Amino acid sequence: MRDTITPEDEQQIVNAIKEAENNTSGEIRVHIENTCDIAVLDRATQVFAYLHMHQTALRNGVLFYVALQSHKFAVLGDAGINAVVPPNFWNEITSLVIGYFKQEQYAEGLAKGILIAGEQLKAYFPHKGESDVNELKNDISFGKD
């Protein structure tokens, strides 16, 4: 995993998260692991719960889930954001990100997808100024494998 996602890649992804969250009260996390042996949305749902993403005040967390060796990717939004985004929104981000992944541009793809998600979050969940609290970490979580 660490031979695919370099420290520079990690920094690019974290910077995208910070930039996206500067304009919204929404929360974005990225989880990367090597393998996924179940349906990708089922695994993303497990990770979403493990990272306590459902505990944001407005239920506006978004998870970018990647299983590198299994070639699986999913974007999962919480109930608050899913209630307001257009029906194909997550599919559009998924297609964009996978396009970058096919060129082995993992950090670039994730960064672009994160920034697009941030724009949508901004539209529905604008930043609350100084009263806005970062409810979830901005770092990437990594699986054990």
UniProtKB/TrEMBL annotation:
Highest taxon listed in the record's lineage: Bacteria
Residue ranges of coiled coil: none
Pfam families attached here?
A: TPM_phosphatase
Q: Which InterPro entries match?
A: TPM_dom (IPR007621)
Cite the TPM domain residue spans from the record: 3-115
Q: What PANTHER family would the database entry show?
A: BLL7265 PROTEIN, UPF0603 PROTEIN YGCG
Protein name (Swiss-Prot/TrEMBL): TPM domain-containing protein
